[in-house]
Design goal:
The chain is mainly α. The structure holds zinc ion (ZN) (2 copies).
């Protein structure tokens, strides 16, 4: 493994945060709103139409890994792995930690995790297609981290 391999992984991983933010803001709250709508409704079913996005986002990962192996391009394989790892992290944080779809990982006592949860709950304040904020997952406005830190201080000083 060379530094360039590691750099490729990091770029793929954090590049996906941008892709996720962009597609959430302009595609899921855009022309594919009908697939995302049930994720914004009050009562979540076990399976949501929104889950199709997990499959959609798996396609570029699968393609870059498969083509990278066929043409023996390590950077393509690593890009695919970076996309897949991002997808896994997104799933754990969004479906399990934030939305509690499987009853574990209820608490992560760290300002970072509390901050991203705060920001995403703000995203869910809107039920309709328009007017939402905080479309990112891992990178959210600093104020949510600050609020989470303040809250942490209050609860320990009690
Ligand atoms: Zn949304
Ligand atoms: Zn959500």
């Amino acid at each position: 493994m060379t530094p360039l391999h590691i750099l490729t992984f990091i770029l793929a991983f954090f590049g996906m945060e941008f892709v996720a933010w962009f597609s959430h803001k302009y595609i899921m709250h855009g022309f594919l709103w009908h697939l995302h709508e049930d994720h914004h409704s009050e009562n979540h079913k076990l399976f949501q139409k929104n889950d199709y996005f997990i499959l959609i986002f798996a396609i570029p990962s699968w393609l870059t890994i498969m083509l990278g192996m066929m043409y023996q391009n390590q950077y393509s394989v690593i890009t695919g792995i970076g996309i897949a790892v991002y997808g896994f992290v997104y799933f754990v944080l969004h479906e399990i930690f934030i939305h509690q779809r499987f009853k574990f990982l209820r608490k992560l006592d760290h300002w970072y995790f509390k901050g991203i949860r705060r920001a995403h709950k703000i995203h869910h304040k809107t039920i309709g297609k328009e007017g939402s904020s905080c479309f990112g997952m891992l990178i959210v406005p600093l104020k949510y981290f600050k609020e989470a830190k303040e809250e942490g201080k209050l609860s320990t000083s009690r």
